[in-house]
Design brief:
The complex is a heterodimer of chains A (about 300) and B (about 350). By secondary structure, chain A is mainly alpha-helical. Helices cover about 70% and strands about 0% of the residues of chain A. The chains are: A mainly alpha (about 300), B alpha/beta (about 350).
Chain lengths: ~300, ~350
């Protein structure tokens, strides 16, 4: 018998903290993640409330074209049509972040469903679902989304769908791997032996234990969805009626040499946002992964 | 643990047969083909009775437990033939829905590893209440109140505050107590204990056995103990089944089997138990081991004595033909060709 690894006294263990509190503590010990979180929250708040305090329509011509930042009371200047860059940044941020969140949410939803069913039921269900996952994985993602948007029109829901449908495979594979691991653990057999249904096992026994890596992946996916949207917009595949960071870069692209700030400002906004999301995701990974915790 | 033999469970209950396993054969599909991991197993369990399964790892003890619960590994395992009659209902034929009703309610199980058999993301109170809400349709408040009672019954101190603890805040022994509370929450007729103390310290082992005995006296639950600890068997059970390579090697009362083992395998298992002596002397009784290992799954089910390769008494007959189960006096059953030359 190998007893050395077990706590074996019947003394009450005094440490009594919710796992959530422990994770939060770990997260806040990671300085770069905390700074990133502050930056991210600032950006999100600016995108949500900014347009209320700065209601200038981002499509309205308010001043002479190509006014550099700071000129005539326009903090970030105007673009090639004389539209207010600051307004574009605030209104566009709202759209970019919303698309990022919605697309990530969609891929998490599809990914968890596919991965959970495959990992839990195994057998032919797993075969079929994983072949479908592989199909989507080998698809050239940008090309496929472009085709979807080009065919069905560049509306916000369609762009969100096009991004979501090509990015769920990673979540599906992570979820499946976690389910394969967890379904063999004793507490799952124990739940089964007390009469739990399959639905109960999937959603309230295995899934909560599988969540940490999925949460990390979801956080990173918001970042990559924002980048993806920017890429599509840059190629002209954006909703022409709505400003987004990528769309501003795309429309100002021809003047990149004459008025570089028109491209640089939304570019920096994307860069900072995605970087902040990545760092927060990294911090979450460290905080949620008990193996890394011990380092 | 003591060598003396206790008869603990109440014998006052009517001798009604609660569970009757008839010629159960369980097949497992492996890379080498289909093998019978349980081969023609029969036994009876009385209401409130005790029975122990012993044998080395890989003898099919745990598989027997899983078969009783309808939890054979899917899709590899299946019941090939035989019956599991529980209150005259054949569980081998029961639907999944029916089995789910029975599990945790009429038959429940505790496991070897208390460290991993509780779900780490829920409090222990939630996990006990969950079973009560599932089978007893209690609401949240009632279930929580019952959970506190149960924690008290398994002697967890200050249960009202401990229900909000997570499993990682408990010691191994306490977790096994919680597992027992979950298993006994719905007052099942049968509790299957699959090596319940293997992962625990010796002192804690004794406490857990005491607890099981105490709760059995209170609730009248029959206990199926699966173990390789002969001391635990002597302490907990009246009846014992020795399993080898998926087959019953010997069956009888604990007194019969331990005093007069009728199968060379049982003989070897008993000789391999160390005896604790009051003083350390020069000449200690020699600790015997059984040479060799349990045969690989691929050899299970062959028509010969599967223990022959490790047996001093083996003859040509043993290698040619599977020994029949012979009943000696007082239902002491053994499956050995040479049982007479043993004692």
């Amino acid at each position: 018998m190998n007893d050395s690894t077990h706590i074996s006294t019947d003394e009450p263990v005094l440490r009594s903290r919710h796992p959530f509190v422990e994770t939060a503590e770990m997260f806040f010990r990671n300085h770069s993640a905390v700074v990133a979180l502050v930056v991210l929250v600032t950006i999100v708040i600016a995108a949500i409330v900014g347009p209320f305090f700065y209601p200038t329509d981002p499509f309205e011509m308010v001043w002479a074209p190509f006014s550099p930042p700071g000129a005539e009371g326009f903090l970030l200047g105007t673009d090639y049509l004389g539209r207010d860059m600051l307004s574009g940044l605030l209104h566009g941020g709202r759209v970019s972040i919303a698309i990022g969140l919605a697309a990530a949410l969609m891929s998490v939803f599809i990914g968890i469903t596919v991965g959970a069913l495959a990992g839990f039921y195994r057998g032919w269900i797993e075969e079929v679902l994983m072949r479908i996952t592989e199909f989507f994985q080998v698809l050239p993602t940008l090309l496929f989304s472009m085709v979807l948007v080009a065919l069905f029109g560049a509306s916000l829901p369609m762009i969100t769908f096009a991004i979501g449908i090509v990015s769920w495979t990673a979540v599906a594979r992570i979820t499946r791997a976690e389910f394969l691991r967890i379904r063999e653990l004793e507490y799952v057999t124990a739940s089964r032996s007390s009469g739990a249904t399959n639905a109960k096992l999937i959603f309230s026994v295995i899934l909560p234990n599988a969540l940490p890596p999925i949460i990390v992946q979801a956080a990173l996916m918001v970042g990559s969805a924002i980048l993806f949207e920017a890429g599509l917009s840059f190629l002209g595949l954006s909703d022409p009626n709505v400003a987004s960071w990528g769309q501003i870069i795309g429309s100002n692209r021809p003047y990149i040499l004459d008025a570089s700030y028109t491209v640089t400002i939304p570019g920096v906004a994307i860069f900072v946002t995605v970087l902040a999301i990545s760092l927060v995701g990294d911090g979450l990974n460290d905080a949620l992964n008990p193996k890394l915790r011990q380092r | 643990m003591q060598d003396t033999i206790h008869h603990i469970a109440p014998d006052n209950s009517a001798d009604a047969i609660l569970l009757s396993v008839r010629n159960l054969t369980v097949e497992l599909t492996t890379r080498d083909g289909v093998v019978p991991v349980i081969d023609n197993m029969s036994f009876d369990l009385k209401t409130g009775g005790n029975i122990s399964f012993v044998g080395e790892s890989g003898c099919g003890k745990s598989m027997t437990a899983l078969a009783l619960m309808g939890l054979l590994p899917q899709p590899a395992g299946r019941i090939a033939s035989g019956q599991i009659l529980f209150n005259n209902e054949d569980l081998a034929q029961a639907s999944d829905a029916r089995l789910r009703e029975i599990r945790g309610n009429d038959i429940s199980m505790i496991f070897q590893e208390p460290m991993t058999s509780l779900n780490p993301v829920y409090t222990i109170g939630e996990q006990i209440a969950e079973v009560l809400r599932r089978h007893r349709n209690l609401d949240r408040a009632e279930a929580t109140a019952k959970a506190i009672e149960l924690l008290d019954a398994v002697h967890i101190p200050s249960p009202a505050s401990r229900i909000n603890d997570y499993p990682h805040q408990l010691s191994g022994g306490q977790r096994q107590r919680v597992m027992i509370a979950i298993a006994l929450a719905c007052e099942p007729k049968i509790l299957i204990a699959d090596e319940p103390t293997t992962a625990l310290d010796v002192t804690v082992q004794a406490q857990i056995f005491d607890l099981l005995t105490e709760l059995q006296e209170k609730t009248g639950t029959a206990i199926v103990l699966i173990t390789h600890d002969m001391g635990a068997v002597a302490r907990m059970s009246q009846d014992i089944i020795v399993m080898y390579a998926g087959r019953k090697a010997e069956q009888g009362t604990v007194a019969q089997v331990i005093r007069q083992p009728a199968h060379p395998y049982t003989h070897g298992l008993i000789a391999a138990v160390p005896h604790l002596l009051p003083t350390i002397t020069e000449e200690r009784p020699e600790l015997l081991e059984i040479p060799g290992i349990v045969p690989p799954l691929s050899q299970f089910g062959q028509n010969r004595c599967l223990f022959a390769s490790r047996c001093n008494y083996a003859t040509e007959q043993c290698r040619q033909q599977r020994p029949e189960e012979i009943s000696r006096e007082n239902q002491h059953i053994t499956a050995c060709w040479h049982t007479d030359s043993l004692s």
